[in-house]
Amino acid sequence: MGLFDRVSRLLRANVNDMVSKAEDPEKILEQAVMDMQEDLVQLRQAVASSIANQKRTEQQYNKAMADANSWQSKAQLALQKGDEDLAREALVRKKNYSETASSLKAQLDGQAGMVDTMKKSLLQLEGKISEAKTKKDMLKSRSQAAKAQEQLQGAVGRLGTNSAMAAFERMEEKVLIQEAKSQAAAELTGADLESKFAALSAGSDVDDELAAMKQQMLGGSAQPTAALPQGSVSSPATPATPKDSVKAPMSPQDEELEALRKQIDGL
Fold first, then answer.
1. CB of 46 within 8 A of CB of 111?
2. What ranges in the chain are assigned the alpha helix state H?
3. What is d(CA 38, CA 226) in angstroms, rounded to the nearest whole number?
4. Basic and acidic residues bias located where (predicted)?
5. Eight-state DSSP code of residue 221
6. CA-based angle 78:80:83, to the nearest 5?
7. pTM of the full predicted structure?
8. Which residue from 83, 141, 185, 225 has the fewest beta carbons nearer than 10 Å?
9. For residue 231, is it left (φ>0), alpha (ψ between -120 and 50) or beta?
10. How far apart are alpha carbons 40 and 129 in whole angstroms?
11. pLDDT digits (tens, 9 = 90+) for 54-98
């Protein structure tokens, strides 16, 4: 294989690869429909031109037939008048126009068949263009959906390595650490309060026990008596007379009982 062939194949391969990568389905479909519409316009122009030629040929054919018929009438008139030479000349003219009309008739038949074929092709192209437009819209929708899905998958794939996602993960870790610290501080504060209340409770018990001991010591010791001189005898305490004591009011039963005692003492 020659160097020129290898370079040519390499260039064609690279160009084809670039074209394949540059092809956008939506743009290609739009351009294809535009090309088909341009073909449709050209075909319509061609059909219109063929129909115009057919009409012109038909007019020429009709004129040739009319001229042939006219010269036929003139030949008959000349023959009736006894002028055979003029009748012969008229028949020659009539033959020329008849041959022209025959040629035009063959051309007209060919044009009619061609126009019919072009009309059918025009209808087929219009149907294909209508179908292509519908298919284009459907393919464009599918292409857009595929692009959106591809972008979505790419975005989801980038979430794992995205710096923003990593920042979210770091901040979540920090929040968890702050929550753990807050919970630990709350537990320590609760334990400190419990210890303080326990100390207060213990101190109260000690104070209560100390107060009980003081009360016991005060209650157990008697009032000290005054020291008397040696040889002197302390006189007993004089009992309080009934009149010195305050009598509580007596119930009727006690009064009756007291009256019985006095009766017994008077016997």
1. no
2. 3-22, 25-80, 84-159, 163-220, 252-266
3. 147
4. 258-267
5. S
6. 45
7. 0.45
8. 225
9. left
10. 9
11. 999 999 999 999 999 999 999 899 888 888 888 899 999 999 999
